[in-house]
Amino acid sequence: MKHKYLFIISLMILTVFTLCGCGSKKYDTKNQLELGLIEDMPVYGSYGMSMDFAVIADGENINDATYRKTASTLLINDSTKEVETAYNVHKKIYPASMTKIMTGLLVIESIDQGKLSMDKVVTLDHTVTFDEWNVMASDLTGGCQVTVKDLLYSLLIRSYNDCAILLAEQVAGSESAFVDMMNEKAIELGAVNTHFENPHGLHSDNHYTTAYDLYIIFSEFIKHDLAYIIDSIPLYEFTYIDENGVTQTKEIKPTNGFLAEECNLPDGYSLGSWKTGTTDQAGNCLMIEFVKDSTGDKFIAVVAGADGPEALYSDMTKLIHSAE
Q1: Is 253 an active-site residue?
Q2: Per-residue DSSP letters for 143-182?
Q3: What is the CA angle 259-261-265, rounded to 5?
Q4: Sorting pLDDT into bands at 50, 70 and 90, what band is 17?
Q5: Residue 100 annotated in active site
Q6: What are the tens digits of pLDDT across the range 127-167?
Q7: Can you tell me the distance from the alpha carbon of 234 to that of 210, in angstroms, rounded to the nearest whole number?
Q8: Which candidate, 225, 270, 238, places its Cα nearest to that of 104?
Q9: Which of 72, 110, 138, 159 is an active site residue?
Q10: Which domains can be identified in the chain, with CATH numbers?
Q11: pTM, entire model
């Protein structure tokens, strides 16, 4: 009889926890991405997301009417973990150069861990080339010498795609080994609807993420002071020694229109870290961290798949103005 009562009490407790939503949340996963990385991977794992991240249910849209022409849009008060705007945040998107958030994160972690020095001089044994035309890249060619610092700064400021590959080789020995690290890090962080195929974000059908996963990865990226230091620079002198031994210097501007003063950041807000991204398939994308000066609250915002730069910065400006 005693065991019977214990069983009934245990069943009642289990029912309460289930109804109250304690423990890992379970959502309808029939429309979720098929990762093909780890079998039976949940949409949300037990990564402490309810404490560390804002949680948004699959299919949930919040204050989204203004942003339905984008692929996905997200605004989170990162100080309170409140979701203020959400549109298609678990929908598959192509990240374009927002991929470099993960690339930068792994490089910065290697530097912080003493595995890679910012002062290391890299001598290129090959010229990085791409199949696509008009790819954003530096003037580096085989035989050039450049520091890890200049590679990292130009990766994040000017979004040079060749620098992503060169850094990947420095961290992991090869681009493919680095991509493995990227996917492992995504799973470790809880970005389980993400799959990377390269460190730069040029299009591949199997290279994808979600706005929510980008928020998770970006949250880890902005923990590093170096990320903010680089992302706050409005003009940088990219320096290298060419194959003839001549020092070359090129001034590079951020791809972020707010920082490059091509667009006006709304008054009363301060810009933190950021990353842009643009391909034909991804559309125009921007992820930023900003602070509302009057309250000190920090926000993270994502606009993905905007139809051109004007629409992108218009939507992002509206998001910033709406931050509460």
Answers
A1: no
A2: T-EEEHHHHHHHHHHT--HHHHHHHHHHHHSSHHHHHHHH
A3: 70
A4: very low
A5: yes
A6: 999 998 889 999 999 999 999 999 999 999 999 999 999 99
A7: 28
A8: 225
A9: 159
A10: 63-322 (3.40.710.10)
A11: 0.85
